[in-house]
User: Fold this.
Amino acid sequence: MTKIAKYGFVLSFVWVGFLLAISFMEAWVKFRAVSLDLPIGLDVGVHVFGALNMIERIFSAMLLVYVFINYTDKVVVLTGLTIFTFVVAQSGYLLPELNQHAQLIIMGMVPEKNSIHHIYVLMEVVKLVALLVLGFRQVRIFKQA
Assistant:
């Protein structure tokens, strides 16, 4: 394993930082601002989560290549695949659905209720746990090398 490859856990923990800052803090803190109405908050959210998703797509591609080139550890491979799969599902289906739902609200319409937001939040929680497991497992392997 090359020297740079040994420090792959840094990507996992930087990603954890992004998730904690945006998905688990910014998203709900924003709606506590009394002066921010729902349509504007949703418009900001669409842009922020779009930017996060772009970063996550880059990180997940890097992670997938990195994991398959440098690891045989089953936990690392399984968590890497889980994270990649979740990012693909969020990018390809959940975010477009959430964005469409938000656009209807921004336009003053009342969209049908659905469970997409709950599924997205659940996937964010599982992704966060998987990233933590992956990162700590990578650190353990790093220390053994």
